What does this fold into?
Amino acid sequence: MTTARTPETVTVLRDVRPWGGEPVDLHVADGRIAAVTPHDPAASAPSVAPASSGTATDDGVVDGRGLLALPGLVNAHAHVDKSWWGRPWVSYGGEATTQGRIAHERAHRDELGIPGVDVTLTVLRELVRHGTTAIRTHVDVDLGLGLRGIEVVREALAALDGAVHAEIVAFPQDGVLRRPGVLDLLDAAAAAGAEHVGGLDPASIDRDPVGQLDGLFAIAERRGVGIDVHLHDGGDLGAFQVELMIDRTLRAGLQGKVNVAHGFAVGEVPPSRQADLVAAMGEAGITMTTVAPIGAAPLPVHALRAAGVAVGLGTDGIRDLWSPYGTGDLLALTTQLARLSRFRHDDELVTAARVATSDAARFVGRDVHDLVVGAPADVVLVDAENVPDAVVRAPRRALVVAGGRVVARDGDALV
It folds into this structure.
């Protein structure tokens, strides 16, 4: 990784192909796309820096060399406070259950300096160099840490000076009701600016699904924040909890502010129940995020989107005390999502790319996240023939622009 330095400001990103279309020039002002104009190869372009060079020109013009342009990748389910990326290898020693992983993490996080600003910065830079420019990150809030993890993540994000736009979920990894005082911590986190409060398997962890959801929804209504619940419980038990969330969302008037993360049950229940569940989620404005896990029943992505259920993609933890896996490469994870979903046709592969980019705007509090006028100037360039080619190969990121500044080149983070 290169030494961090001040990112160059971009005024014009010339000769790029948004979504594989015709070549255009993207004009940038105040961190946003101000204009999109057809590229004229005959026009004079003095002192233009190519996308593969080390710096932009003095006037901020960068030559995109006809590369494919995508919006910045959106990691809709991350845990950037947990990673040991950059530390010596940590052998996994926990039991392969949710509770076993929680206990293992609680026993060993302090010795690894987790959460810590340095390790959080390291994993954030991995995300940046792979093209991620916006994240929704869950940050542990528990009786041992209090709100310190959120403070750590905010400090690390500030050190990147806008290279990553983030929303924070105050996440009760060790349970909610079974740990008296956690609800108060979640409320305090929401009052202090966390955009969402999280939950965790209301039935199998807290053994009180109605009680946990009542507590979370009370905070959401009082503080005006969203809710994002990790739901690993499968089958009928998981589906029942989704139904509870649907009912509570409608009664509280929180349509569009409730997310089910993982939601394995939605992919597991029989087709008729799945259809009813998906339709009800769409009516309630509930969203879903997936980490495209190998071995789990894939979510019905097409059916969810058709019902109006927004689907986001995230890395989950990256080399943490839950699992040694993860690289921070969301485009490669898009390949995995497409394969698990059995996508083969071009339009399906484009759908996978949109799940990881433009369609994920709502997961990070944006109205628009695309290569259009008025959107944040978050752009990823790759050497690919078209979007399906980019999804299938996940080629190296030639250039990453965030908020109108070059933050990574040729796989190296510059922040």
Summary: The chain has a mean pLDDT of 95. The two ends are 10 Å apart (CA to CA). The first helix runs from residue 98 to 108.
